[in-house]
Amino acid sequence: MKIVVLFTILAALLLTSAPTPASAASDLAGAIDFPALDGVIEAQMAKHGLPGVALAVVEGDKIVYLKGYGSAGGRLMTPQTQMFIGSQSKSFTALAIAQLAEQGKLDLNAPVQTYIPWFNVADTSASSKITINHLLHHTSGLSDAGFSVLLPDDATPEEAVRSLAQAKLTAAVGSQFQYFNLGYAVLSYLVEIVSGERYADYVQAHILAPLGMNGSTADPATAGDLAQGYSRLFGFAIPVRQGAPAYAVGDGYIVSTAEDMGRYAIAMMNGGAGLVSPAMAKRIFAPGPGAYGMGWFVADGGAKIFHGGANEAFRTEVNLYPRRGLGFVLLINEGSQIDHFVSGKQLADSVEAVVLGRTPPAVTQGWSVRWVGWAIGIAVLALVVLHTRNFVALRGWRERARDLSPARRAFAVAISFIIPAVILIIVFSQMKALYSNRFNLVTNLAYFRLGLPDVFILMLAGVLPDFIQGGIKLTWTLTGRTRKG
Fold first, then answer.
1. CA-CA distance, 146 to 155, in Å (whole number)?
2. Distance CA 132, CA 146 (A)
3. For residues 462 and 76, what is the distance between their CA atoms, to the nearest angstrom?
4. Distances (CA, A) of 17 to 1, 196, 264, 371
């Protein structure tokens, strides 16, 4: 059961890697300690081997601290360096929908079919029940678990929405929170239908330009100062090209900067800054099931409002503390899945502690992504050595098999298929437990190639050689090459 243990350890550390929260008793009043802020960021970058980080800290209606750390790929990272903001894009789509609702161009409680008559999911009766609000709050009943379609990057927004005809509900409409990226792709397409403008043009004219977010764009092809993004292979950051599916910009591929996102954080924390009415701004932050508002997570009764973003090569954290008039933005040009669970969480927790005047967790708390990657690399190397030895030993298998009874020979062949099959079942069941309704075998494996390349290699090294050896043994058995004399 070699690889089972490795995946069990990996799943466990992803679930338990967050550092212990700082004690509320250490909460202090007073100015933010910016040298301490630099210290925790640089320490976390060194611990995890993060290429670059950009930071914005806001207080009241001002950006009080801006800084870049590390590299954007051949140049220094700055607060003006462009990066993909991942699922933070959803908050822009939700804001656009809220604006259109206030203009009387759509009703948040209306079914999607009111504006897109051909909108359908696999359950025809449910199709007419899914409202705009359901999509905004991720309560449509749709989830990754029920949608196995792999859309090409050049699929149009309309093609993406039409593909939902194959999406099976995994919960009753409106019954529970199930995070589903493509729901926001529907909303971004709805912005185009209702406004009569391209999504990128609407966001530019009605959100980015009014806030002075001149380094941001909802058209990734026009980004001019984009940082190099990185994935991770055996603990080392490796440069990769970040794709940007045309249909998914509104759910995960807007480009921005730390400085611009600081302006956006101020606007959202201060009633929408005229982009929407105070009443609508309050509605945006009103949580539904899963403590999810309209494009934002809401915690502690509204004391903390946040959303992250996770692309294959970038990470975003935006945390707002409205009651204290504080907030911060972190943009990171490292996007492996393990980083999202481990380094991104530890970095955000450390920055949060300093911004709120608390004692940050010790940098030694929690796993290092480097350690995890090195451990995976050692495991892959060990598996390569093990299977190389097994392939060498395979040369004598025919002679050994000739002395076995037909039943024992059949078992010797079958075990080469049974063991890796059982391993895969256990691994995928653990992944399902970890990702819950966001687990889908087809889409998760497709994502692994970029988001978790070393784990993907580990999986192949753990099971593929066994299947190959089983195939060789089966061929020899069927062709009679293991029979006596």
1. 20
2. 20
3. 39
4. 24, 46, 30, 12
Classify 391 as helix, strand or coil.
helix
Instruction: Write the CB contacts of 449 (distance below 8 Å, at least 6 apart in sequence).
Output: 456
pLDDT digits (tens, 9 = 90+) for 109-158: 999 999 999 999 999 999 999 999 999 999 999 998 888 888 999 999 99
DSSP-H helix ranges across 367-452:
369-393, 397-402, 406-435, 441-451
SS3 for 56?
Answer: strand
Residues of the chain with pLDDT under 70: 1-30, 430-450, 480-485
Helix (H) or strand (E) holding 234: none
Under 8 Å between Cβ of 351 and 40: yes
Euclidean distance between CA atoms 28 and 160, whole angstroms: 49
Matching residue, tokens 């009415």: 277
Domain architecture of the chain: domains with CATH: 22-104+186-355 (3.40.710.10), 369-478 (no CATH)
Q: What is the pLDDT of residue 481?
A: 60
Nearest to 475 by CA among 394, 383, 389: 394
Closest CA to 336 of 374, 354, 310, 316: 310
Neighbours of 229 (CB within 10 A): 25
d(Cα 345, Cα 308) in Å, to the nearest integer? 10
Calculate the alpha carbon distances from 363 to 10, 18, 39, 48 in Å: 20, 11, 10, 10
- Distance of alpha carbon 428 from alpha carbon 439, whole angstroms: 9
Report the C-alpha gap between 60 and 23 in whole angstroms: 25
pLDDT score for 2: 47
For residue 5, which of 404, 339, 462 has the smallest C-alpha distance? 462
Q: What's residue 8's pLDDT?
A: 43
Displacement of CA 419 from its chain's centroid (Å): 31
Torsion of CA 175, 178, 182, 187, to 10 degrees: 50
For the stretch 219-235, pLDDT in tens is 999 998 899 999 999 98
458, two tokens? 């580990």
